[in-house]
């Protein structure tokens, strides 16, 4: 048998220019040769002049409609077995029946799913080619039938005898009751109920009018297995023209149908959890919003996000994180009561009203809400379901979720706006703390607009060099000598004045600008070091903060080296501060990058040690030069208790690992003295100096100013 061709010549017949254009583009991209006709008359003329392998034929057109065109093509010798796929926006049984009575091979309803169109065309061409090969080569018929999972049959109308090939018996069961003594009723009883009308109409048209047909339907084997089949048949006439027999081929296309279903499922569902994806959820929600408009009822969209899920994922690994997401998806699906949802027609599973739209974010569509508070009650039930302990891969995990709620039509009149407002409400809920729930209101919308505006301004400020560096001295508390400084970024906003990092760093992290901001700080700090050297001032070491995304860049070493090379300073003058969250993300690659930076001369400092994922294994494995005691421990260090114990433990760890220890946020002589008495000489805070603008810090360097040394306080037990 010849190889089945991968491509073919197609004719698209549709009076809608946009449909023709989109279909042609999709099919040409898939490798097909495509011709177009805008009416039935033109299609018939083109068919007389050219050969086509398949027709896509619109039903409703000016002049000759699709049904008539199909009938005329079937009367032509070359059109007898030509695959004809009807394109129709009429999704009712009468239209489908009329399409098959006219000789259609298949039909596709509008709007067309372009993802599946090429697959339908390929399978149509494949089936047509297989049938043609069988009819052309009687000698290889049995072999062809086995390869194509196809069997031949004939039905004698005079004595109602039905005969079929061995291949057909194997496909549909060796004790197939139709073999030998068939009746229309017996055959139809074995056809899937939803397909019986179309199959009966096609066979009646063949027996009465001799109209050949091609049709797909479901068939139940004697063993109860349901198979999908493709069938085509034609009438055999005697010398007087009377129909005496029907001959046909039936092919098992179950695998093809299952493949189509898998493709459709993947296109509309989340690959990990099996829930509806964003696209499918929007389609479902659009139908329900339209119903709610007609019935003047309320519905709500809940936007859920797992609190601190990234921390769980980083600590336990992606595989365990995926298991957690699947468990959450299952709990959400089970917890949404059937009474909360109105099934669509055809009926949908309740799980399809819950979607995973991104990462650890889910949405739930709640229908027939009587009052908005009912949506909050459902949200609380979902939160309780998520909060039940989970045992995954030997770990017991307790998750919480924050929820944002938007109610239709109070908060928005479209799916897109309603989803956006629910997400904005979620941001407010997350800011309120874990497991919070908030409704959307206009102030949230205004806040989101202000946030977007501020993000654009920040992007512009980075590009136009509208940021400034301030410098906070690091002091040797025992001598009062300047031991270095930390560079801190400020934003000179044209309307809001000088903004501190707490007012825009979170925005930079959320918007993805944090890497660009870090690169700006690095380059600007290096330039200041060069300026001070050129001014003849004594060199010092400058600390700069780089966020975790900066260190996760594969080319971070090259970027840092380029910055100091362009400025003409030494890497030894820079201390790169990183946070603990970086240490649990892709540890092996992180260690490799940090080793590269250290080998080039950069020092590395661990900022805010003890506030995150602290572990002694980090200090042993990671190439660190400095630990910084967070200000939260320094504030009450003189009172003893846990804060003092943690601070002193960090000092001792630094000593044991050969690292410098710097205390942040020192504001009183008592704090400075206590830390100095326990071996922490390097300190920074408002006791010594606030962060200074460049001119004032340069004056401090130029004058060689010293700070008042501190006296150590008597040592006492940290928990006393």
UniProtKB/TrEMBL annotation:
Transcription regulation as UniProt keyword: yes
List, for all copies, the residue spans of the domain called GGDEF: 297-442
Q: Which SMART domains match?
A: EAL, GGDEF, PAC, REC
Please provide, alphabetically and separated by semicolons, the GO molecular function terms listed in this UniProt record.
DNA binding
Pfam family for this entry, one: PAS_3
Q: Which residues carry this modification: 4-aspartylphosphate?
A: 58
Q: What is this protein called?
A: Diguanylate cyclase/phosphodiesterase (GGDEF & EAL domains) with PAS/PAC sensor(S)
Q: Which residues form the PAC domain?
A: 213-265
Q: Matching PANTHER family, A to Z?
A: BIOFILM ARCHITECTURE MAINTENANCE PROTEIN MBAA, DIGUANYLATE CYCLASE DGCP
Key word Isomerase present: no
Q: Where is the Response regulatory domain?
A: 9-125
The biological processes this protein is annotated with in GO are: phosphorelay signal transduction system
Domain EAL positions: 451-705
> Which UniProt keyword terms apply here?
DNA-binding, Phosphoprotein, Transcription, Transcription regulation, Two-component regulatory system
Q: Which domain of life is it from?
A: Bacteria
| NCBIfam families tied to this protein | GGDEF
Q: Enumerate the InterPro entries for this protein.
A: Biofilm_reg_signaling (IPR052155), CheY-like_superfamily (IPR011006), EAL_dom (IPR001633), EAL_sf (IPR035919), GGDEF_dom (IPR000160), Nucleotide_cyclase (IPR029787), PAC (IPR001610), PAS (IPR000014)
